Amino acid sequence: MNRKKYQVDSNGYYGNFGGAYIPEILHRCVTELKDAYLRVLDSDDFKQEFAQLLRDYVGRPSPLYLANRLSEKYGCKIYLKREDLNHTGAHKINNAIGQVLLARRMGKKRIIAETGAGQHGVATATVCALMNMECVVYMGETDVARQHINVEKMKMLGAEVRPVTSGNKTLKDATNEAIRDWCCHPEDTYYVIGSTVGPHPYPDMVARLQSVISEEIKKQLMEHEGRDYPDYLIACVGGGSNAAGTVYHYLNNDKVKIVLAEAGGKGIHSGYSAATIQLGRLGIIHGAKTLVMQDEDGQILEPYSVSAGLDYPGIGPLHANLATQHRATVLAINDDEAIRAAYELTRLEGIIPALESAHALGALEKVSFRPEDIVVLTVSGRGDKDMETYLNNVQMC
């Protein structure tokens, strides 16, 4: 087996996906980052500071919890990787700490970020407060309205939240505005991308920083089961950061089946969906070649999902490659299926998941498990931010 089949090459490609398709004005910023990230991430002082903050500030390792009642329901052994228990309530803090540490070593003074559900924005604002860095977060006006608690958290942490009124006023549009800002302030500004999207080196860098998830899973499964791999890994995927972290150390282990759950919205063929891998065609979005939801003329289609963190019309190049190579099975989980799955976990295990994570939970009923199967499902975030949506849709359950 070609062990590099699923890994990034020196030009930032995962198979046919990835690269850096950027305007000339961004060339300096991206080249500077590409030249710095591996040197910094592989340095002993970075590794030491990063590990210390993950342990003492974030609260890692996050638990690997055997969900007994959920396991009984689906006839296998289901472990939940509890990223919802991290400081700030999601996996996003892993990447935010790593990138702000990198920015500081690169001499940057100002941090910008995009956010959809608000979790990446909150995580970035949190780290900037900790490290005394200026922080500006771009967020679509639609998401500002449906995630107002996270907006207030960011403001309380000292970040400036800039609502974006273009397009569908969601994650894609927030990313557009953040890139424009970066173009205008290349000297002092560092753009913290929250997922495995964007031009190289972002997809590889974010995956590396999130790989602490699968690193811990290997150790924890050895303690629980006497082996360091599961039969199945399940994670939700929008841009793909928690999924990348979940599968990173298992990409070349053929014993492990990978299941990715993307946002089906109101149905794949309803016109209201964010099932990019199912619906997308090869294209370029935000500096990377990947699968993109687009019309015959190449115009990007507006995505839809009840989950603010999954309504992105592209997908990280790592996951596009995994799907194309049939290394991952990709399932589209509709809004109502995700909401039902969230209520099921809440009532069976006393855990309220984020809407994004609920899509991963919704995949459980679509997979045929054997009684001896060991399943690890990443709960990427907690559901505090989504309570209004859950309450407004309780009739689905």
TrEMBL record:
Cofactor(s) annotated in UniProt: pyridoxal 5'-phosphate
Modification sites for N6-(pyridoxal phosphate)lysine: 92
Tryptophan synthase beta chain-like PALP domain sequence ranges: 59-381
GO molecular function annotations of the record: tryptophan synthase activity
Catalytic activity: (1S,2R)-1-C-(indol-3-yl)glycerol 3-phosphate + L-serine = D-glyceraldehyde 3-phosphate + L-tryptophan + H2O
Top-level taxon of the source organism: Bacteria
EC number: 4.2.1.20
Keywords, sorted A to Z: Amino-acid biosynthesis, Aromatic amino acid biosynthesis, Lyase, Pyridoxal phosphate, Tryptophan biosynthesis
Pathway(s) served: Amino-acid biosynthesis; L-tryptophan biosynthesis; L-tryptophan from chorismate: step 5/5
GO CC terms, sorted: cytoplasm
Database matches in Gene3D superfamilies: 3.40.50.1100
NCBIfam families found in the cross-reference section: trpB
Family, similarity comment: Belongs to the TrpB family.
Function: The beta subunit is responsible for the synthesis of L-tryptophan from indole and L-serine.
Subunit architecture: Tetramer of two alpha and two beta chains.
PANTHER family from the UniProt entry: TRYPTOPHAN SYNTHASE, TRYPTOPHAN SYNTHASE-RELATED
Protein name: Tryptophan synthase beta chain
Organism: Phocaeicola salanitronis (strain DSM 18170 / JCM 13657 / CCUG 60908 / BL78)
Gene name of this polypeptide: trpB
